[in-house]
Design brief:
By secondary structure, the chain is mainly beta. The chain has one domain: Acetoacetate decarboxylase-like (Beta Barrel), CATH 2.40.400.10.
Length: 245
């Protein structure tokens, strides 16, 4: 990943590409925007399996999930473009770890996440204990793919290229999936906070064409096995207030 630091400017002036930067927006007096949030946008979801040792050492686990008892194997990489939200439009890149529980249940915890606005970051931390950090997103669009470079403090931490797959999109309703698969569990002061998502959108397959990251900044998903990728277009999602289990 040593080359990624200089990649941000290497393709910006190409006549065959469209590039724009989304610098993170800071506000001198950011206020918490309370839930529920209703969001609209499009995004990519990639599901991986990992060896538990990698997630314990490179998954940025919170203290509540660390230790030899942690046996998770699932990981999710998401790249989302929220066009509408109570905090305004913003970009997001996240990694979540899925814990394997009995009876095929899985609970996901977001362990690393970057967003392009301070309004989203502040409210995400305050409302749901999601560890959001602000970053600059550079988006380079080509005819059939999208490259996104995520930078913090002028250093490119993640550089990935994604593309929708072939085939017709199909409608997908979030409430048809098992509740545990759409529940995120975050932690604040040792207390678990569970948030159950709901929504719908048009889904088709997706490809992760390239991924590079600084291991000290974001999990290297190349250490895992890609199980599947999905592009969800024009989704609507509801993010309610969290509950204590």
């Amino acid at each position: 990943m040593s080359k990624v630091k200089n990649l941000a400017g290497s393709h910006c002036n190409s006549g065959t590409r469209r590039s724009h930067k989304i610098a993170f927006v800071t506000e001198s007096s950011t206020s918490r925007i309370p839930p529920p949030w209703r969001l609209r946008g499009s995004g990519y979801v990639f599901l991986f399996t990992f060896e538990p040792w990698f997630l314990r050492n490179g998954g940025f686990l919170p203290p509540e999930l660390t230790g030899e008892h942690f046996e998770a194997q699932l990981g999710v990489l998401m790249l989302v473009d929220y066009r509408k939200s109570p905090a305004g439009p913003y970009r997001e890149l996240l990694f979540a770890v899925g814990r394997n529980l009995r009876w095929r249940r899985h609970l996901f915890s977001i362990t690393r996440i970057c967003v392009s606005t301070e309004a989203s970051a502040f409210s995400g931390r305050e409302n749901w204990a999601i560890p959001k950090q602000t970053a600059e997103f550079e988006v380079i669009r080509e005819s059939d793919s999208e490259r996104v470079i995520v930078q913090r403090d002028r250093l490119a931490e993640v550089d990935l290229t994604v593309a929708p797959g072939r085939g017709l999109p199909i409608p997908a309703l979030g409430f048809l999936s098992p509740p545990s698969w759409r529940t995120i569990v975050q932690f604040r002061d040792g207390q678990a906070l569970e948030t159950r998502l709901s929504g719908w959108g048009m889904v088709r397959s997706a490809k992760l064409l390239d991924f590079r990251s600084l291991p000290k900044a974001f999990p290297d998903v190349n250490e895992g096995k890609l199980v599947g990728g999905f592009f969800i277009k024009d989704f609507r999602m509801r993010l309610p207030a969290p509950e204590s289990p």
